[in-house]
Design a protein that fits this description.
The chain is mainly β and 152 residues long. It folds into 2 domains: 74 residues, no CATH class; 63 residues, no CATH class. The chain has 2 helices and 8 strands, in the order E-E-E-E-H-E-E-E-H-E. A 4-stranded antiparallel sheet has the order 1-2-3-4, sandwiched between helices. It is flat and about 55 Å long. The chain starts with 5 loop residues before the first strand and ends with a strand. The mean pLDDT is 88.
């Protein structure tokens, strides 16, 4: 007999940057706020079947500090994209990509960056972090991909 696995799983999706540019009270950078949609689904054998909960979160694209929005408020925010476009692209750098095997037990030689296409500025989001930390941040912010760059 086979086992049946069931439970809930949460998916995140980056909806975009909306509203006017505002200064973040935490990091003091001026950007449009990001909206991320988190959807929880009941699954059987890892196949999502029934949506159980949907939450929208509005946060600073640099530091990630923000707050939960009601669905109606999120829809109103997303209907008003604000003036201009904002393109922020995440990327990671592996500093010790060519290190000899077995040197570090936990490889925390990664850096996470955010590239502002408008100004050309690279913003450091985290340094001395692991690949797992990058994956967690990617899920929290709803990013599909974070390109990895090897630094020698």
């Amino acid at each position: 007999m086979g086992a049946i696995y069931y439970g809930t799983r949460t998916f995140s999706k980056h909806m975009g940057y909306f509203g006017p540019k505002q200064e973040c009270e935490n990091c003091h950078r001026t950007y449009k706020k990001a909206i991320v949609k988190f959807s929880s689904w009941f699954h059987i054998d890892y196949i999502p079947l029934i949506p159980t909960k949907t939450v929208y979160f509005k946060s600073c694209p640099v530091c990630g500090k923000g707050f939960e929005l009601r669905k109606q408020d999120a829809k109103v925010e997303m209907a008003n994209p604000g003036e201009g476009t904002q393109t922020l692209e995440p990327h990671a750098k592996h500093i010790m990509a060519n290190k000899p095997k077995g040197i570090l037990k936990d490889d925390n030689s990664y850096e996470l960056w955010l590239k502002d296409a408008e100004s050309g500025e690279d913003i450091l989001l985290g340094k001395d972090i692991t690949k797992g930390d990058i994956n967690n941040i990617k899920k929290e912010r709803g990013w599909k991909k974070v390109p990895m760059e090897k630094v020698e």
